[in-house]
Amino acid sequence: MDHITLALPQEPADGIAGWAADLVDAMGAPGAGLAVALENLFPPLPSEIILPLTGFAAGQGVISLFAALFWTTLGSVVGAAVLYWIGALVGRERMYAIWAKLPLVKTSDLERTEEWFAKHGTKAVFLGRMVPIFRSLISVPAGLERMPLPTFLALTGLGTLMWNTVLVMSGYWLGDQWDKVGDYVGVLSKIVLVAVVLALAFYIVVRLRSRGTAQHRRPS
Prior knowledge:
It is found in: Cell membrane. The chain folds into 2 domains: 16-176, no CATH class; 179-210. It has 10 helices and no strands. The protein is mainly α.
């Protein structure tokens, strides 16, 4: 198999792109699947680099386009399934025990989260596959709530296929400019991350204020 020659104006040869290229070079399309599976387990590994790179490899004839889509989707599903089982093994009772020891949260908060997931879990699992960072995290509550495994795998597979197809095909069409995909998706990732941090900060402030108000109203 010929080594993949990449145009990497921003990514060093020994960076994530170089690591992913080495996997594809050594293992072919299954190497891309392995990289994406690891990306699900370790979200800091960016799919916006791995998937367009795989599409570029397909465009260069190193692997077939079908193999690129099949193995990256399979890798995503396998990684999500591992996280699902982590949530399932932790279990509801243990999660409640851990939750009770955390500051600034109440058991009722977790109960409301369970109720929300029961109503909207299928949409969250499906659409979450197309949201950076969230696409990995959503598998844990799915396992915790014991969403039927066939349903989880089907929703994960469909959502992942859509996400992977967009990024793989972008790399396939852009050719040696495949790395530009990461610029746009990276902006989206930052927006989502900032939104989550702000939401968490707002939640903590509200929780502290509510506790302060409750203590102030207590009779001395």
